[in-house]
Amino acid sequence: FGSSWFLDTVSSHCRSMARKEPPLSLPVPTSSDEPSQVSRSPMAASSRSPGLLTRVTFHAKFEEVSFGESVRVVGSHPSLGSWDPTKGAVLETTKDIFPSWINAQPALIETFTKVEYKYVILAQDGQARWEACVGNRTFVASGPEMSVEDDNGLYRQHLMQEEADDEDEEGLGNDAAKALAHRTPEMRQLFLEQKLGMVEDLEGEVQIDSHATVFMVALQLPLKVVKVNGQYMVEVKAPTDGRNFAWLPLVEEFRKKSKVRIVCVGWPGVHPESFSEQTEIERLLSKHNCIPVFPPKQDFEKYVNFCAAYMWPVFHDVMAFFQAANPMAFDEHGWAAYQHVNNLYANAVVPHTHESDIIWVHDYHMMMTPTFICRKLVKANVGFYLHTPFPSSDSFKSLPITEELLSGMLCADQCGFQFFAYARNFLVSVKKTLGLEPTYKSGGFIGLEYNGRLVNIKVAHFVYPFLDTKEKLLEDALEQKAREVKKLFQGKTVFASMDRCDNLSGLIPKFRAFKRFLDLHNEYRGKAVLVQYTFESTTEYDKLGHLLTALRDQADAFIQVDKNGALVLADKGDPAESDIYLRVEKVDRTDRLALFRAADVLLDTSVKAGLNLMPFEFITAHHDDKEDRQAVTIISEFTGCSRVLLGAIRVNPWNQMDVVNGCERAVRMAATEKQELHRCNLQYVSESSPIEWFKDFLLDLRRARKKEGIRIESIGFGAKIRQVCMTQNFQKLSTESVLAAYRNAKNRVLFLDNEGTLAADERHMYREHGAPKGGVSDLKSRGSPPDEHVLKCLRTLCQDSRNTVVILSGRDRQMLEEWFGSVPKIGLAAERGFYYKLPMTGGQWHCMKQNPDYTWQSYAFEIMREFVKRTQGSFIESKGSALVWQYRDVDPHFGSMQAKELSTHLRELLFGFEVDVLNGKGYVEVKLRGIHKGVTVTKVLSKVTALLGEVDFCLCIGDDRSDEDMFEALASFTAGPDEAGSENTSSQLSTTDGESDGHSEGDRGQASTEDEPTLLKAESFWSKHRKGISNLSALSSGKSGDLRKLGSGGLGGSGGDDFAGGSGSLERFFTCTVGRKPSAAKFYLDDTDEVSELLSSLKSQQERRDHPASYHTWSGGDLRAGMRVGSMPALSSLAFGPRRPSKT
Q1: What pLDDT score was predicted for residue 156?
Q2: Which end of the chain is more exposed for a tag (fewer CB within 10 A), N or C?
Q3: What is the distance between the alpha carbons of residues 320 and 323, in angstroms, rounded to a whole number?
């Protein structure tokens, strides 16, 4: 059906609730072939919307219909004959769609009406044969059009096939295709180029200037400094650990091809003992475009051990040491060393760069470096790439520094990952920890909206340097070593592997599985050997001496190097019984490639690896294998490369028999299958270009750079500091500026939100458990009332007839009356302005809409209740004119899926009602259309202007998304002629009115004489702005005038400064958000305490104005008619006590 059974049932139940009747149930027929007599009249649905009709088409399947008989649908609605078979809707068929029958003329049925129906075959003599089914069929009309499918989708499948055939025909013979075919080759090429240009425009044009510099920041430089005979020297040969062997040729090649300067930043491999040695090393490395970092040796050791003991295991989802009987405590000193070393790396980069350069930070050792770089260069274009896996959210939360590490990564403009599985784990952690949802942009880009910035997510694994390795394989020394390895194991099938000596490499399970393979397949004993190269880790992770001991016990023989540099075997027993050979030492790239060149099978059993370049290197080493000798690759399904090397045999290292079967398949595989699998792997490895990977990441990083015209501030303390993007004029609200404008105004309006602004937001502390038992009216709403201090401030402000104070909240009228009823003459706007009352209109509640229809609430409530039952942690909240399904306490992913499903059902069910279904962060809301705080602000300002005159002061404060509507509405009122049509509403514009509007306190109560009063007209504002400047000139020249015509300063300025001639206009309209965050407001305050302090200042100002005349001091706002006006007097000339008449 177009509407599911679920929606039908809910609609029926909701409709019965609206009539205060029991839910409808299907009637039980007297026989299986006649319609139920209970429903022989159309259903009078009280909920149907007059004027809204649904066009209903029926699809039925009947095969046994004789000539002269007709198929009809008969039901409870008049358009279906009101159960009269002779008046039912006639169904038709053709030879193309038979046995499907459809009604050529759709039945017109009132929307939301429940209809019962049945199919009948009517003979020419009027005899009816009803379909054989128990009870009546039912549906609820919904949407503008609806299809009722009772043919199991047969007719729909026919239509889909017709469309596919039509597309094929159009592709061959339609007019457009013919026109394209008859175009000249040049025109066809131009047409294709235009299409390609449209695709390229999705990404946007971006380029890296040849004058820019790319800084590669990693733990270690791609080359090494050594000390020989007391002198430091640079070894161009890259360090053997990590992937540094691939960095150096990649960087050199990119430098040559792009002409872009690349500078590497990292530890040089030594700790100099004096400043002169540091200078010498810097001089040596500068020739190779390298910047060394010299962390203190003790801190560096703590830092490396912290990375090895905590970061490395957790990022590989290993938490064994946390689960131990006596788990070790988190290393606070190691964490401090980690931050300190990261800061040193940032300090090494910053002096050499500027905002147009690119900084690319690598791996988990440097996760806090983007934070420290952006503290010093807020506009720096920083990218971060994680070479290891990103752990699952639960593993990642085992680190007490989860939020700090995520904040550090999100300080970068782009975060890169090897594979999407790792990026997905990152997105889940960010969502659970920081509440951020990923966004998807045209062109296939994924991003995260974080504090006004869009952080790009890049997924592309590191590419192995195939061409460079091919050249390396041609070296004579490498060939000689490969022949040497083959000679040691001549006539045997060599299983080879090269792994780091740690628990993640799965070495012990590998040895056990290989021995099991030989035990089960004894025919290969003596014919197949395992050659394992391993090297000790540079870290002290888990004190791996026990692992080496276990490996030596499991191995049958050892591979060693004699004094002449030749490989020799050292057997522990009979050489004929040796099956596993172990070599424990760091070998260079030549030795590693020689082993792979001589081996027949690669056996990898890593239990976790981010990418693992060894399989790529093994495949490259066999790029020129002859057809009769093709290498086979066995890789663990837990290593990243298993996702792209489709020609490899994938095994589960935890399943010993799976590894055994993989080994058996490798030795018994037919030559043709070996060729096909090896060709598949070789094609992927050879066609992937590291230069393209390098360039692609940099271009996307440049595209993700921070935009011009924004201001970035660092907010927070310590490692949790974060970058927030704001508009250039977004500033902290100055109390002095507000007081200065307040003193000089005589028609003031204050819009204040309650929870999160006047009172602390404690909504997260209240939640209903389980599905609600009653109806919509039984839903409860809890909130936070303001304290007595705030109420005192509001009472004082409301006593002044020049002030209009309005509290806007999402709570209902009763709750606002309870909270603010003790404040006389206060304006209230409940349910985000759906109900409002103002003191100048008699203090009576008014509604934004006349005779609002609440029928939809019973439908929405019922379907929300069903979702509460099925979504643990969700609940329903009533806001009077709105219903909200809250899922902020639900698992983020499950909650998002349920919210999307709920939104879809609500939009379909509530079609035709004047409501909007909104998907927010942690909630789904159904509210009346066109009701929000912005509309209320507009309404109030219009009434105040009409009744009390033009507004010359407005203070608007809020804290959440619903308050942004207030800020945008006020900005639209205060925009100048050049800005009224601007699309940029990111900040509220200055609306200084430097001239008095001509109203005195006595005529404040008179209504405006204009037919269509407005708050401020753009033309009058700008003309008055210019008049204010001219008045300033007049005052400075000694002429008399009203001081209220002067501006008393914007942000940061005091009234005295402005009276001295510092500013020609006064900031009088203030939009302010609570908390520093991206907002349409122009100002911010940090928390509710600062809002309270501002209200206290306004209260004190008001109380000073209410003092007797003898207490008046000199200020522009206190001058009245008859007072002497001139330039600001000196202290000695200030008069206290009774006012003096002005001299004439």
Answers
A1: 81
A2: C
A3: 5
What H or E segment, with its residue span, contains residue 300?
helix 297-306
- The answer for residues whose C-beta is within 8 angstroms of residue 521's C-beta and 6 or more apart is 664
Average pLDDT over residues 31-36: 55
Does the pLDDT at position 790 exceed 60?
yes
The C-alpha atoms of residue 945 and residue 943 are separated, in whole angstroms, by 5
d(CA 267, CA 279): 14
Alpha-carbon dihedral sign for residues 279, 285, 291, 296: negative
Contact (Cβ atoms closer than 8 angstroms) between residue 878 and residue 830: no
d(C-alpha 801, C-alpha 1105), whole Å: 13
Q: Are strands 748-753 and 803-808 parallel, antiparallel or unpaired?
A: parallel
Question: Which pLDDT band holds residue 201 (cuts at 50, 70, 90)?
Answer: low
Picking from 941, 464, 365, the residue whose alpha carbon sits closest to that of residue 689 is: 464
Band of pLDDT at residue 237, cut at 50, 70 and 90? low
First-last CA distance in the chain: 90
- CA-angle at 733, arms to 934 and 819, nearest 5°: 55
Instruction: Tell me the β-bridge partners of 458.
Output: 416
Could you give the CA distance from residue 423 to residue 437 in angstroms, rounded to a whole number?
Answer: 13
258 CB burial (10 A radius; 0-12, 13-18, 19+): middle
Residues contacting residue 283 through CB under 8 Å, at least 6 positions apart: none
H/E stretch holding 902 reads helix 892-909
The DSSP H or E segment spanning 304 is helix 297-306
Q: In Å, what is the CA distance from 489 to each residue of 118, 492, 495, 588, 1081?
A: 82, 6, 11, 21, 76
The alpha carbon dihedral of 1079, 1085, 1087, 1089 has a sign of negative
Name, of 67-71, 672-676, 909-913, 973-977, the range with top average pLDDT.
672-676
Instruction: Give the closest residue to 35 by CA, choosing from 72, 90, 68.
Output: 72
Question: Contact at 8 Å (CB) between 604 and 497?
Answer: yes
Neighbouring-strand partners of residue 129: 121
Instruction: Give CA–CA dist 466/468, Å, rounded.
Output: 6
What's the angle, vertex CA 201, arms to CA 196 and CA 205, rounded to 5? 120
User: 30: which residues sit within 8 A by CB, 6+ positions away?
Assistant: 36, 37
Backbone angles phi, psi at 381, to 5 degrees: -90, 95
How do beta strands 557-561 and 580-584 pair? parallel
Tens-digit pLDDT profile for residues 615-634: 999 999 999 988 778 899 99
Q: What are phi and psi of 690, to 5 degrees?
A: -65, -30
DSSP assignment of 961-996: HHHHHHHHHHHHHH--TTTTT-S--SSPPP----S-
CB atoms within 10 A of CB 387: 21
In the numeric block, which tokens belong to residue 870? Answer: 């099925």
CA–CA gap between residue 287 and residue 397 (Å, rounded): 44
Strands 632-636 and 601-603: parallel
Which amino acid does the sequence have at 260? V
Rounded distance between C-alpha atoms, residue 93 and residue 100, angstroms: 6
Is the omega angle on the peptide bond into residue 222 within 30 degrees of 0, that is, cis? no
CA distances to 664, 712, 1094 from 1087, rounded to whole Å, are: 68, 20, 11
H helix intervals, 568-631: 589-598, 614-621
pLDDT of 868 over the 80 cut: yes
Amino acid letter, residue 697: F
